[in-house]
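agent: user wants the full assembly modeled, not chains individually. Plan: 1) parse entity lines 2) check alphabet per entity 3) run joint structure prediction 4) return tokens. Steps 1-2 passed, two entities, 651 residues total. Proceeding.
--- entities ---
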Amino acid sequence: MIHLKSRSFLRSGAFALLVIGIAFIIVFPLYVVAKNAFVEDPEITGRPAWPWSPIPKTFTTEWVYSLLTESKLLSSLMLTIVSTLLSVGISLLLATPAAWALVRVGGKTKTRFRATGFILTFAVISRMFPSITVGIPLAVILVRLMLHDTIWGLAIGFTLFSLPYSLIVMKSQFEAIPPELEEAAMVDGYSRFGAFIRVTLPPAAPGMAAAAIFSFLFAWGELTLPLLITSANQPLSVMTWRYLRGATMAQGSAIAFIQLIPVLIFTYILQRFLKPEYLAGAFKY
Amino acid sequence: MADVRLVNVNKKFGSVVANEDVNLHIKDAEFFTLLGPSGCGKTTTLRIIAGLETPDTGEIYIGDRLVNELPPGKRNIAMVFQNYALYPHMTVFDNIAFPLKVAKLPQTEIAIKVKWALDLLRIEELENRKPRQLSGGQQQRVAVGRAVVRQPDAFLLDEPLSNLDALLRLRMRSELKRLFRDIKATVIYVTHDQVEAMTMAKRIAVMRYGKIEQLATPQGIYHCPRTRFIAGFIGSPPMNFLDGTLTEKNGKSYIDLGPFSTEIPPKAAELIKEKATSSKVIFGIRPEDIIIQKKKVPKQVESYLCEVYVVEPLGSELLVNLNIGENIVKVKTDPSLDVNIGEKIWTRFRKDKIHVFDSKTEELIF
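--- prediction returned ---
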């Protein structure tokens, strides 16, 4: 008994160490960026003190403040947030019902599996080329549609790239939910659509959250596509790219820090849906 | 509660025939079982009644209503799924209240009905738990609770016990039987387990290849199986079969089983001559209808000396496997009999319990 206990203690201890290690690797660079955004310049570019200390010695809001006031950064930030959220919304709105149809329509027949594979291949093709090959024709189309250099144009562009991924994520999500759940709700009095909304979607929350986070991160960081489909109204990624040429390390850290905040807020809100036990107890094999 | 009728229901999935000319009349307050091996179409029949599948042709009536065009939710039926299909994001109370909420019943009425169902299934203390916090047996009760609470016209149960462990299955079997009798429910119960079908049902429809092969009471199916398939499916262990040929000697009729011949009643011989496609037949006898003893049987009683292949003690009874020619025949006997492998033992058949099937059509002749 003692033997068993000490072994499980050792194992959970090792596991905790591993988690701390991984967390450190992920969090440390973020910390350095955040720190450098708020310290005086010499502390960044000067010779590092020995022993190196993670605690900042100076503090200034100069870099962040000047960025937020002097440049067009604020309007660019707003443009990025709105177009990104729009593309996340459109992507989920299209991918969710499409993935449901791919998984459910046609039952467990061979025809359905073949058709699903075919459609998925097509959906993923746009992701098989670098953004620039898709971006140039897209720019032409957007100009004709008078959507070039607009929020909607950006949102459509981002969606083009995040949709296939969302589709694949949502497809695996719906495959994990047994059709009986919907059927039970239909027998209990709901229409097919009502059953989908009330009974299938809630357990699909982890998949939707994962797809949303991916779509968000993609749109947030994408540079090539906005370079091609915007001119006057440029999102944060393009701004950053222009700004970084000739910026100091401190200014760079400041703009990186500003980019970091919305991402952290968004993923923090959604991460609570990323729980595998959403489906637990629904069914038994 | 209401009766359920299926008239000439046909359903194909691609080239696979799931239901062929299924005609059923399940009476009001009857416990009816659809029994058959997997892939026989029994679940399809149930899903057609539920409205989850659309039949290619045929009509479905629940009570006096033709329900072909009605969606599942409008048919006033309740279904229990093999995997329970509990709503994972709702508590036990909300799971059971779900169909009532959909029907927009007033809150107070919902509370009363759910309490009644929780009480009926003895799971009051679980009402605030989520499905993942329940054991398999408890999940099963919640699934039944969600069905019972609606007081529907009919209950459709799809292998509800097959995911429970053996002991719990035994208990739920009797509990469900009693529960559905107490609320005078029309129940259509799908199972591949012949013991469940025999113990629970008032009538059984045995299905195979999408067709109903026999529809009768459990006793009727046991004693008069319409085909060799049914005889070999029902009973544990099922019926023994031996290939035989009809012969006649001194005005008496026999079936030649190879090592020996057994006399059959004149009526059986008549029926074989009249109905069988040839003189080759399949002789069938249930394990409990073979009598074995070590003491020599008086000469005037027909008996044969058979070698014991293996002995399987079950506690309350003893299964003795005998070599008869190439075949092994199982005999159910008293556990006090002391026999060993290789021993020779006197064997005779209960003459009123023998069955004869046609060798080609495999249908019951006698």
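agent: reporting back. Chain B has a mean pLDDT of 93. The interface with chain A takes residues 13-14, 50-52, 71-75, 77-79, 81-89, 98-99, 102-103, 130-134, 136, 139, 146, 150, 156, 163 of chain B (CB under 8 Å).
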